[in-house]
Specification:
Helices cover 27% and strands 14% of the residues. With 177 residues, it is of the alpha/beta class. 27% of the residues are buried. It binds magnesium ion.
């Protein structure tokens, strides 16, 4: 019997890639924000930096290269590889918000997730996707999504309670493998 594989859409930032540690490193370099900064539940990075520098993150994120060397979120590679044997995996990133991110994100994926072919990469604006599952840290991306929503934990979403949550990639594996 030939079962059709379920499709999973996976977000990049704060799910596969870690922009927060890069923001902290840049704010540390320019404004002495501590490298061990802990972002409080419900907060964004700009809540923890000097008032006059709170918009600086927008400059950082628009610099070519910002997305190219982001750390990989722990265990995402091994779990994605395992999921890839059972599901059709699509990377769905609202990359168009930052025009300089496109090539960096493509190259980053090719380096760290070489088993995801280009046919399965969706760089978009609004995430109008028709998959069975969506793994994302931003609930705005769930509002028109009809499938199973998995909220991937990031400091900014820690106070949100009304979605199925995964705290890390081990928990994704526990639920989906
Ligand atoms: Mg994200």
């Amino acid at each position: 019997m030939n079962h059709k594989k379920l499709r999973i859409a996976v977000d990049m930032d704060e799910v596969l890639a870690d922009p927060l540690s890069k923001f902290i490193a840049l704010y540390n370099r320019d404004y002495n924000v501590p490298l061990d900064l802990q972002i409080s539940p419900g907060n964004e990075i700009h809540h923890h930096v000097p008032e006059h520098a709170k918009d600086k993150w927008y400059e950082y994120i628009n610099e070519p290269g910002f997305f190219r060397d982001l750390p990989v979120i722990d265990k995402s590679q091994e779990v994605m590889k395992a999921l890839n044997n059972h599901y059709d995996i699509y990377i769905v990133s609202a990359a168009l918000e930052f025009r300089n991110s496109l090539i960096d994100k493509y190259d980053w994926l090719a380096e760290h997730f070489p088993f995801i072919p280009w046919t399965n990469i969706v760089f978009c604006g609004d995430k109008i996707v028709d998959t069975d599952i969506l793994i994302d840290d931003r609930i705005k991306n769930f509002s028109n999504f009809k499938g199973r929503k998995l909220l991937f934990t990031s400091p900014h979403n820690l106070l949100i309670t009304h979605y199925e949550r995964v705290n890390n990639w081990t928990e994704v594996a526990d639920k989906l493998l």
